[in-house]
Amino acid sequence: MLIDKEKCIGCEECHPYCPVGAIAAVEWEGRAVSEIDQVECVECGCCYKRSGVCPVDAIYMPKLEWPRSIREPFSNPHIKHPSTTGQGRGTEEMKTNDVTGRFPFGMAGVAVEMGRPGVGTSFRDLQTVAMAIARLGVEFEPNNPVAELMADPKTGKLHEQVLNEKVLSAILEFKIKTEKLREVLVAIKDVSAKIDTVFSLDLISRVYPDGTTPALAIAKDAGFTPRPNTKTNVGLGRPLFKEA
Ligand code: SF4
Ligand code: SF4
User: Fold this and answer.
1) Number of domains forming the structure of the chain
2) Probe residue for ligand 2, chosen from 2, 6, 9, 36 as the CB with the greatest number of ligand atoms within 8 Å
3) Domain presence at residue 155
4) Confidence band (pLDDT; 50, 70, 90) for 233?
5) pLDDT value of position 92
6) Is 6 within a domain?
7) Looking at beta carbons, which pairs linking 19-22 to residues 24 or more positions away fall under 8 Å?
8) Whether 86 and 198 share a structural domain
9) Is the CB of residue 34 below 6 angstroms from any atom belonging to ligand 2?
10) Residue 240 in domain
């Protein structure tokens, strides 16, 4: 996003709209105007025309070229990802396992939701986490929009060109055998000290016929305090899979 300094009257009305604090007052040709830091701007569109915040219509969006163009779909929920044609940061199937059966007995699903409004995340940080867990044999979700940015899903390495791109949030989604889950969770805990952002951790698991959820005990043993959630589709979610 850019500000046309010729038009800008320096009212600063747009500043609070930016979730990453990228808009600042500057002096330009002897008067106060506003400017957008192009390193920090995640192209979320909150300050843009649709908000109607700028009284003189000085904020505009230039055509975004690759790799900067990936910032917009990861930061603006109204924009579809070109690779998946879906909106949002992850895949909905993580929340509808009762229909898809993506995570069978013996497997756990994990999502590392990196970045949040106010912080954001770079793909360099996302790569740091991806590489720390890839060596443990995780299977990254191919339908997640991060997948097309991976140069090598076996190592978790991303394409070099995207590493400096910053977005509001991106999710690393993968599955892992339950017996390897503890090791993966400990690796995530360890790597959290090496990144410059925040993340939430989601753990998806089947409830076993005896009512237990082994993944919960594993998460506790790995030093996490899980908050169990469940989504019930009250009979509307018809399984599209057969139990193995
Ligand atoms: S597009 Fe979003 S991140 Fe960029 S300046 Fe506007 S509000 Fe801030
Ligand atoms: S709202 Fe418009 S005129 Fe006011 S500081 Fe922002 S860009 Fe400039």
Assistant:
1) 2
2) 9
3) yes
4) low
5) 63
6) yes
7) 19/44, 19/46, 19/117, 19/118, 19/120, 19/168, 20/44, 20/117, 20/118, 20/119, 20/120, 20/166, 20/168, 21/118
8) yes
9) yes
10) no
